[in-house]
Specification:
Elements lengths: L1 H6 L7 H32 L5 H50 L2 H5 L3 H8 L1 H34 L5 H44 L1 H6 L3 H26 L2 H25 L5 H42 L20 E8 L10 E8 L4 E6 L5 H6 L9 E6 L2 E2 L5 H7 E4 L10 H5 L8 H10 L3 H4 L19 H13 L5 E5 L7 H12 L5 E5 L3 H4 L4 E6 L2 E6 L1 H7 L1 H12 L6 H4 L1
Parallel strand pairs: 3-8, 3-9, 6-7, 7-8
Antiparallel strand pairs: 1-2, 1-4, 4-5, 9-10
Helix pairs in contact: 2-3, 2-6, 2-11, 3-6, 5-6, 5-7, 6-11, 7-9, 7-10, 7-11, 10-11, 15-17, 20-21
């Protein structure tokens, strides 16, 4: 319930609509409660004496009450829809904003598929719970107590039937709710697995076709689809017991009331009209209990969704600004002092261990090492995508934790290993680097990244639509556009995380020469090819998360065996045993 209380705070902007809907439901109940009493008078006074005046008067009043009940019901639907959809929109907005505040460490704790499910399916569950549950949540207790009161006025002795049947129905429904509640959590987890499989399959559809793995993927999908089917079947196997339980108790109550009520009529203790009205109240009371059980079933499912939504909303970013953060990065000087890092505090081994490194402002530094050497991890500490577990990372002579996060990340441009473009035009993607960039600035960045050569061949130039995720351009063209986008930030530190792997050597050489002209920018180049870093001022070799060697190309080639092996394997060929490549 604590989860629900927190979630429903996001409905505050629409609380007037909620109060209006609740008031309309109460008024609707009053009109419906009047109808059986009017019908009782009609049956007892109008029908036996063929008194058309009474029949017309009571019938007219019944029609009026029914019409007013219909109008209030329609108005309720309008206000309830505004409240539920507004509440769901606020909830989705809050979740999306929370995810945007997440740091990399927070994102590591949630899968992409789970976040999608929490912002779509789980919010829809909450929307449906409000939309379909608000009316019975208010109507059921009102009808229950008003119906019992009216029934007691008509026949206190016959009301004993309620005291027997209603608790039985309530106990059965409570048992159903307690069994179904935990199953809804399992069902939503199965939805996560299904969404994850679909997302992965659609993302990798070209690889699946290239490797002819369609049958295998169908089997994997069938497994998660069956998991969801089984979870849903087990859940609804208990949920559907709701209706049979209600019908059993309801018809038993009706038979008992007709039996005892008929005897009361024969003894003159009750009239036919009173029995008819009493039966109407019985059905309304039992139906209210049934509706209330439906609310609890819906609440059981919404509790599972509310808990998952709350986990996103209450997830606190791992990184926070200092009390009085520095907003200006003085230079691109970089210092690592005894830096170690673990992705998980419980991990036995550090991804980075005891890194001490000084990089002067404006220098060009190449970073090489084998797969898993933690090259990307090292550079991610600079814009504070993660915080070092031990030691200090400094930019411009100050600890990165002293800077305002926005100011620090604006001063550090990073071209990711995985090139990401967004749906839209080339211009819109480039303007991520600088929203106010002019066409001249855009083309200058494209020339530096050697993207102008293919852009000039496009009929619409910068206004060419890239399609979803940049599907209309090649891998090398994506890399060049990402480089141009980062250059538009005019950063003090520029990081290339293996960002020219998909371009030819001539284009890469041209990009390196363009970067060399940025003398006031510190450039870090992660690469697998010696040719990409051999002209750097410093070359850093990482091995298994440790700093193995630092020096120029000439120094490392003369003294370092690992660098010599990599150089020989790439530049001269390694005809012996390929040991250089493995290292």
């Amino acid at each position: 319930m604590q989860d629900l209380r927190m979630i429903f705070r996001y409905g505050k902007p629409y609380r007037r609509d909620c109060f209006a809907a609740v008031g309309l439901v109460f008024i609707e109940c009053v009109f419906e409660m009047i109808i059986p009493m009017l019908m009782s008078t009609l049956v007892d006074e109008g029908v036996p004496g063929h008194n058309m005046a009474v029949i017309m008067r009571q019938g007219g009043l019944m029609i009026l009450c029914a019409a007013l009940s219909l109008v209030t019901g329609q108005l309720y639907a309008r206000y309830a829809a505004r409240f539920s959809n507004g509440f769901a929109a606020e909830l989705r907005t809050a979740e999306y904003a929370a995810v945007q505040r997440f740091d990399f460490a927070n994102l590591d704790r949630f899968s992409d598929a789970s976040l999608v499910t929490r912002m779509t399916t789980d919010v829809t569950v909450m929307l449906n719970a409000v939309n379909s549950g608000l009316r019975p949540l208010v109507r059921s207790p009102v009808m229950l107590f008003m119906g019992l009161g009216m029934a007691c006025l008509l026949s206190p002795r016959l009301t004993v039937v309620f005291l027997v049947t209603t608790p039985i129905l309530a106990a059965v429904l409570a048992w159903i709710v307690t069994r179904v509640g935990p199953l809804y959590g399992r069902q939503q987890g199965a939805v996560d697995h299904l969404n994850g499989r679909i997302q992965e399959s659609l993302t990798a559809i070209r690889a699946i076709k290239a490797f002819v793995r369609g049958d295998y993927e169908n089997e994997q999908f069938d497994a998660v689809n069956t998991e969801l089917s089984d979870a849903s079947t087990e859940t609804f196997r208990f949920a559907v017991l709701n209706l049979p339980a209600f019908q059993t108790v309801m018809y038993t109550a009706i038979v008992c009331i007709l039996w005892f009520g008929g005897n009361f009529i024969l003894t003159g203790d009750m009239t036919v009209g009173q029995l008819t009205a009493f039966l109407s109240y019985v059905l309304q009371v039992l139906n209210s209990v049934m509706m209330f059980s439906g609310v609890f079933l819906q609440m059981s499912r919404s509790l599972a969704s509310a808990r998952r939504i709350r986990e996103v909303l209450t997830e606190k970013p791992d990184l926070a600004n200092a009390a009085a953060p520095e907003t200006v990065v003085a230079s691109g000087q970089l210092d690592f002092e005894n830096v170690s890092f673990k992705y998980n505090a419980a991990a036995e081994k550090s991804a980075l261990s005891d890194i001490t490194l000084h990089i002067p402002a404006g220098a060009t530094v190449g970073i090489i090492g084998g797969t898993g050497a933690a090259k990307t991890t090292l550079v991610q500490l600079i814009p504070r995508l993660y915080d070092a577990t031990a030691g200090t990372v400094m930019v411009g002579g100050r600890d990165v934790r002293d800077y305002d996060l926005t100011a620090l990340r604006d001063a550090v441009g990073i071209v990711l290993q995985k090139n990401l473009l967004f749906t839209g035009t080339i211009r819109e993607n480039l303007q991520w680097g600088n929203p106010d960039a002019t066409d001249e600035e855009l083309w200058a960045a494209c020339r530096a990244a050697h993207a102008d050569e293919f852009l000039q061949r496009m009929p619409q130039g910068l206004d060419t639509d890239l399609g979803q995720g940049g599907c209309n351009v090649s891998g090398g063209q994506k890399q060049r556009l990402c480089i141009a986008r980062t250059l538009l930030k005019h950063p003090k530190v520029l990081i290339f995380d293996d960002s020219t792997s998909a371009v030819d050597t001539a284009t890469e050489s041209g990009i390196r020469h363009a970067l060399a002209e940025l003398t006031d920018v510190t450039k870090l180049i992660i690469a697998q090819r010696i040719s990409s870093v051999q002209s750097a001022d410093l070359i850093v070799i990482l091995e298994d998360g440790r700093l193995h060697a630092v020096g120029t190309h000439a120094e490392l080639l003369a003294k370092d065996t690992i660098y010599q092996e990599i150089y020989n394997s790439q530049m001269k060929g390694d005809g012996a045993d390929g040991e250089g490549i493995r290292r």
